[in-house]
Amino acid sequence: MTLIRTAVSGAVAACGLAAGVLLSGAASAQPAPPPPAPVYGEQPPAWAPPKPAESWSGQPVVWNSAWGGRWGVWINGGFIMLSSNPVTGGG
To answer: So which residues are the signal peptide here (predicted)?
Structure first.
């Protein structure tokens, strides 16, 4: 009976030690670097209206050629337009 208790105690201690080593290694691992910031926007054409601002709500104002071309900002994957359509002069 003493031999079984000693073996079980040794196995439990070995498992606890192994788990501690594994967990401490995972905790000290460096986190993955953040992904590079997405680059949105295009080179504005020569006929584009002047840029209304350099930034809006902390985001850079960029040119987007969709919808006839407009200045705006990308926030959470959506484009917020800050200028009217220069081709039609409308919204």
So the answer is: 1-29
